[in-house]
Amino acid sequence: MSLNKKTLETIIGRLVIIALLIGLLLTACSVEGSAQGGVNWLFLVLSILCVAVLALGLVLLGKSGKLQEWSSAGINAGKWKLEERKLKNQKETVEQQIQDRVAELGEKAWEAKVYHDAYQEPYQALKEYDSQIISLKAESKDFEGKLNQVHDSRSNLFDDYSTQLKDLASLKKDVENELGKSRSQGAKLTKNLEKLNKDQAKALAEIESQQQELQEVQASDLPDKDKKVEALTKSINDLQRSVSKTSENISETELEQSKLEIAQQPMLEKIARFDDQIVEVEENQRQALAPLDQQIVEIEGEIKSRNDEISSIHEKMNSVMHSMGPLVESARPESEELTRAYYEVDKVQTQLSEIKQQHHLVFARLEASDQKMVRNFYLMVAGALVLVVLIVVFLVMAF
């Protein structure tokens, strides 16, 4: 049984008309069923019709043999397209590898100093660049020698001033230690003086109290008056002698304090002089090191300038060597150092030839395939997917 496209479209169209008529007849029932929460018969019938259309279409296509023909053509075309895309990517990758290896030939030819008339001009340019680099490196080395000398001079000068500062700091520290001891001794004297003054005040207060008591006893009629007067008089005399002794101790302590303060003044003056000398030496150090620091900055700038220029020339050389690679590949001068590189290039070129052959074969298959069958396969798949989606949607809406 053979069905053409026109016949198939006629059958499917009539099924759709029948589905619409049945849908109109069941509309009232579907509305009532939906209001009552039951099954929506319209969408259920539509989903059944979609299933029928899908099944009928597949059966008809299967019996006519077109399902197998279209599927085979479509699947093969898809497989060949994937293979063609894969081979195309491989070809691009291998072509890039060939370019890289050919470019490396120029670098290796220069490193091995393999000359050929075919690349005379770039080779001569590389020689000139190399001479410039040698000259710049020599200049940079001279500047590095000068930089080391300035660094040594600066280090020696810095050490000299550091020694002076260290000596001044040591002398200042000795005086500060001596001053600290003197101040510690003065603090002890101050504490002792405070104690003596407190003792003296206490004794004077006691004398005043006992003298008042003595006057009261003398004016009284106590039976042991004479005995008490005698005892109080003796106590007062003892306290007065104690006050006198304490006064002497206070005078001696104050005198020692005065001597310490006088002795501390030269120490303070020495410390001030040391501070001034340290500031002066630090300023001298700064002024002496400033020109050397400036020389260091200038020389480092010269070295950096040479190194930057060398880097720039290296970049130019790399560009020239890469452009010289195809010339080396074309000339292929005899060289033990380049033999391995030639082999690697030939190996990748052989791989590229094989990939090109495979790509050409796959492309020829794609060109020879029946494009009409391929198109019909994709339309069939798209139609089937649309029907499947409609079936699912109608079933969901029906229930």
**What is the tally of helical segments?**
8
User: Averaged pLDDT, please?
Assistant: 80
Q: What portion of the residues fall into strands of 2 or more residues?
A: under 5%
Total separate domains: 2
Run of helices and strands: HHHHHHHH
Q: Span from first to last CA?
A: 39 Å
Q: What is the subunit organization of this protein?
A: single chain
Question: What's the β-strand tally?
Answer: 0
Uncertain runs with pLDDT below 50, 5 residues or more? 21-37
Overview of the molecule:
The protein contains eight helices and no strands. By secondary structure, the protein is an all-alpha fold. The longest helix is centred in the C-terminal third of the chain and has 107 residues, at 225-331. Residues 21-37 have low confidence and may be disordered. The two termini are 39 Å apart. It has two domains: 1-64 and 374-399, no CATH class; 118-331, no CATH class.
Question: How would the blueprint of this fold be written?
Answer:
Layout lengths: L4 H21 L1 H9 L5 H24 L1 H46 L8 H99 L6 H107 L4 H33 L2 H28 L1
Helix pairs in contact: 1-3, 3-8, 4-6, 4-7, 4-8, 5-6
Short structural description:
Helices cover 92% and strands 0% of the residues.
List keywords for this structure.
399 residues; 2 domains; 8 helices; 0% strand
